[in-house]
Amino acid sequence: QVQLVESGGGLVQPGGSLRLSCVASVSIFSRYFASWYRQAPGKQREWVAHIFSTGTTAYADSVKGRFTISGDNAKNTMYLQMNSLKPEDTAVYYCSQGNTYWGKGTQVTVSL
């Protein structure tokens, strides 16, 4: 059973930055790609970004240009650098390995 543990969430003011981490119990790319999703209160979970083992990345339009996904295979870790945060980025952020295994999430709150 693969375990994923997210960290790095917190409270930040609009315009601020946070870096989320996701540590896997096996290679973060053992299922070829890894992803970040988020779920805001009262809304469905939405895809944020993914990264393939080749290094190819993709982003949702809502975060493109502000968020950067990266991975460190040696550390079994995936990151999400979030800059220029907006109140609408407030959500629980989840990491996923191959859309098969999921972490329990980390809360990000963007507010004054």
Care to describe what's here?
The protein is mostly beta strands. It is built from no helices and 11 strands. The strands form 2 sheets. Strands 2, 4, 5, 6, 9, 10 and 11 form a 7-stranded mixed sheet that branches. The chain has a 4-stranded antiparallel sheet with strand order 1-3-8-7, with no helix packed on it. A hairpin with a 4-residue loop joins strand 5 and strand 6. It is globular, with a radius of gyration of 13 Å. The model has no long low-confidence stretch (mean pLDDT 95).
Structural class: mainly beta
Number of helices: 0
Count of extended strands = 11
Q: What's the gyration radius in Å?
A: 13 Å
Gross morphology: globular
What is the succession of H and E elements? EEEEEEEEEEE
Largest sheet: 7 strands, mixed
Give the termini distance in whole angstroms: 40 Å
Amount of helix: under 10%
Strand % is over 45%
The pLDDT mean sits at 95
pLDDT below 50 for ≥5 consecutive residues: which ranges? none
